Amino acid sequence: RTEYLEAFLACAWLGAVAACQNWRLAPGELAHCLDLVEPSVILAAPDQRERLAERDEWTLEFGASWERAIEGADPLPHPVDVNPEDAFLILYTSGTTGLPKAAVISHRAAIARNPVTRAELGIAPTDAFVAWSPLYHMGGAEYSLGTLMTGGAVHVVDGYDEDALVAHIRETDLGWLLLMPGMVGRLADRLEAEGITSRSIRCCGVMADLVPAHDLARI
């Protein structure tokens, strides 16, 4: 949902911290992650609201309630002056060795990593990005924010929707594309079957050691 990106940017403006929760977490894991950060407010999609029924924090639901809250709010004309090392995003580890751990990303880190990544991958300032992966994950959050920082468009897609992704590849200049290993060959087959030349994709972000080289070359 685009509201997640709105929330990230609002937090940066306010000097607040966005702690991004994984909707796949079991109830106990979710409670643990929320307790770690002691949130002042919880922002939630409508289909996740019931999981927060036992929380005491104010919960604002994306959709109509979110839009009404924005319309009724007094605008903050200038951003809060923050220290570059202040926390901006909190993303969580997978919890493979226990409960998830909160990884803090500062304002400086969120900004500094972007030009380095774009220079290394040869991504142009106006190249677009398709944010299909979860925005609680670095792959979705970091590259969405980086694209917006340099003037590119972010197209938010609710999960891996191959039809939507193919449409964006056909119609949009994508400097790079984020995929998971099992998607690469299947997507390459689809592009070839439809006669789509995806030359705007100069880099494919994927765990390359898990993907046959010939499949990567086809993307």
Q: What would you say this structure looks like, in words?
A:
The protein is α/β, with parallel strands linked by helices. Helices cover 41% and strands 15% of the residues. It is built from eight helices and nine strands. The radius of gyration is 19 Å and the shape is globular. 21% of the residues are buried. The model has no long low-confidence stretch (mean pLDDT 91).
Total number of β-strand segments? 9
| Fraction in helix | 40-55%
Question: How much is the radius of gyration in Å?
Answer: 19 Å
Alpha-beta content class: alpha/beta
The proportion of residues in beta strands is 15-25%
Distance between the termini: 26 Å
Query: How can the largest sheet be summarized?
Result: 3 strands, mixed
Q: Which segments are poorly predicted (pLDDT under 50) over 5 or more consecutive residues?
A: none
SSE string: HEHEEHEEHEHEHEHEH
> Count of DSSP helices?
8
Anisotropy-based shape: globular
Q: What number is the mean pLDDT?
A: 91
Identify the strand order in the major beta sheet. Answer: 1-4-5
